[in-house]
Amino acid sequence: MQAYSKDELKRSIEDYVKVLYRKGVSEASKKQIFQAVAYSVKDLIIEQWMETHRVYEEEDVKTVYYLSMEFLMGRALGNNIINLKTNKVVEETLRELGLKLEDVEEEEPDPALGNGGLGRLAACFLESLSTLGYPVIGCGIRYKYGMFEQKIENGYQMEVPDDWLRDGNPFEMKQEEAAVIVKFGGYVRMTKDENGREKYIQENYSPVRAVPYDLPIVGYSNHVVNSLRIWDAEAIDHFNLDSFDKGDYLKAVEQQNLARSICEVLYPNDNHYAGKELRLKQQYFFVSASVQRAVLKYMEKHEDIRQLPEKVIFQLNDTHPSVTVAELMRILLDDYDLSWDEAWEVTTKTCAYTNHTIMSEALEKWPIDLFAKLLPRIYQIVEEINRRFMNLIHEKYHCNFKKVEKMAIIYNGQIRMANLAIVGSFSVNGVAKLHTEILKNQQLKDFYELTPEKFNNKTNGITQRRFLLHGNPLLANWVTSKIGSEWITHLEHMKKLETYALDPICQKEFMDIKYQNKVRLAEYIKQHNKIEVDPNSIFDVQVKRLHEYKRQLLNIMHVMYLYEELKKNPRMDIVPRTFIFGAKASAGYRRAKAIIKLINSVGEVVNNDKTIGGKIKVVFIENYRVSNAEMIFAAADVSEQISTASKEASGTGNMKFMLNGAITLGTMDGANVEIVEEVGLENAFIFGLSSDEVIKYELEGGYNPKDIYNQDLGIRTIMTHMIDGYYAPVNLDLFREVHNSLLDNFGGERADQFFILKDFRSYVEAQQKVEMAYRNPEWWAKAAILNVANSGKFSSDRTIEEYVEDIWKLEKVTVEL
Ligand code: 7GP
């Protein structure tokens, strides 16, 4: 079937409700209706999915395998029906059944197989690849529990497991016949084959069965459906167990447990490395399964494995899948008998690596003993890669020890995954211009000097299908009414909106839409937070993972400052402001959790202080995730992008805000730099140290925040209120660590390492400019429209075309039905 009429869809929903739940539509719960609708939609997708596969087979296409530990997909139903262009039919059919599409969409669990930027970027990329008609397989892990659900209790974050598969996932398809075995542990035995060639055989290992589940990635209105392939681990069938034959009961049970544990849970760290053994198991598990499958698939149609790079690319999403380099080598050496040089040639033409952070605490390093024990054959190969690479370095730099220290893959008892990824890849890219420059000139300087041709920039992007068409239908329709619908697949067309930016009628229409979206968010806040916020106030929003470098602390300190000013002068004339936060903290990140508590404590005091007449409100949105993000972006006036310059590799939320007509208040960091380049400095609020200044201070060992503290009464007052019970009457120590971190060196950590006090006054000034600007409605409307109009560059379609052109070299396909 190609499309549904309303009657057909109605019948299909009725059938599914009956078959799945033995019920009629009127008796079914909303959740059951969601399942029935989703299955009906899947029936439409299937035809296109099969046809896409057929074309891929027939044309023997080159495919990119996008290897990622995280895919933060967000809900599928709403976007699938938009991309299938069947949303109107679904909406009307449901209405006739007495249901609202929005309510049915709300029943879908929000698949959260990712933490933040890196995982969401992967999701946008897959959607763009389908929309542009390029062959991709997203390869990841089918975590049983995704990102935890955040509950705020008494101002504290609590983590609740996210059992997203409880009711089953209607869109997924288990692919039993594509299962492969992944081997852990044991030892490697060397023998010789009949030609006297050395062979390495892993023995006495623990096998795990990797079974893929495929999810459809529907392109926009082009019949292309790619797959996200997420792997689940199963124990080997008992009766096939070697060890059972030998009566090794314990080993059999161990293998059961290994399989059970691997895909149990997503590690909730963002921009931070925890070094857990289970994490390495996860990495090797999904990498080995994906690479094995890719090679098997290739060999179905080709004779010579040495031509693999003509049809296959492995794109490594950060270093989490870096073992790909060694796993591919293993397969080429051990299974296909290539020589080392031949295998290395293939590998380094197939792998490409993207770096997503310069934060040093995110650098993955594995202790040799742990690594070698878990992956004995892979370790041998990494050692050999390192040995040969070190020879090269010694030769080139005449035994310069500094070079060895920086560039070695194995050093100081540890395996450095970034170095492995760089050495094993033909392409290394950063995710925004500034970030790539910092990689080349600082972080990865030595590698850049050795192989400059590998380095390139791919500024991130976002999909406008989800973050405007689905998330903000009012604005999407308005844009289409002005400039037509080409923007949906060619975001650069937004530029045509510029001519409307000065038109008073258009300005009013635009601001009315913003207002309605603010009303929608205000209702959500009323319902979830029991706080009344005024849709006429400025919605000033910071939503992203909680991290010190992202400086939510700077934001809330400004709120504390403003509150002090209001207390001193309750009649002070300010434009009412609603400060909106949303952020999950990694479960083990103590200081981040304290900052969440601080935000909530400040909110508690400010929101309930009658003397300030409701001029400022603070709202912390619980359980920030893709689904509520879509609504939040649509309602924002101010986009807070205030990371310490140099620390945010790109940011992608900044682009989503811009697309929805929020104005950036930010530092010259990550992709903010390019946002300003597009929209103009006059249509953004920029403040703070530049990345060069930050880097300079860091090289000098930091700065002394006490100088600022001693001179600035405003800062001193709010800091004192962190520890005098003003916001934490029962426990004066609650925020002491946060407070002290701004003033004192501690352990190896510099005082105020993220330059909060240093940037504070500049931030306050920028906030005052925001206030002034908002008082001029014409100016604000114009600037907001210009932000939308100049967001064209930030479509992930543009980013993907650049990857295709410079790195992947894929051909576009067309799928006809
Ligand atoms: C993030 C970066 O922090 C963010 O700036 C960027 O926009 C995003 O990747 C996509 O490129 N990094 C992570 O989420 C992360 O965990 C460590 O990086 C591996």
Automatic annotation (TrEMBL):
PROSITE patterns: PHOSPHORYLASE
Entry's EC annotation: 2.4.1.1
Required co-factors: pyridoxal 5'-phosphate
Transferase recorded as keyword: yes
GO cellular component terms given for this protein: cytoplasm
NCBIfam families, alphabetized: P_ylase
Protein's name in the database: Alpha-1,4 glucan phosphorylase
